[in-house]
Amino acid sequence: MKLTTNLSLKKPDYIDPVDIQDINSNMDIIDSAIQNKVDNTRVLTDVPLNAKFTDTVYTHPSSHPASMIEESVTKRFVTDEEKQEWNSKVKITIGKTQPNSGWWFEEID
Question: CA 85, CA 40: separation in Å to the nearest integer?
């Protein structure tokens, strides 16, 4: 079984049986490692002397301009003309039988 570099967490290989105790042990190691780094409101760690902090509140826009979308061969916009062409294709009519009523027909777009 391999171990992680920093905290020596157990990393079972694909052929190793996975033991719940190993998972629990890993969780305990992680919990101890972050105990003095985080509380409910702050990250308690060393910060560079000249670090600048800003309060940023992100508001997601209700819409996006189409120009921000990156098109590719598999992801691209369709013009109104292309939509109209697709929608005007010939419909196929298939004959089917229904019990006790003979033939009926269904159009498939």
Answer: 58
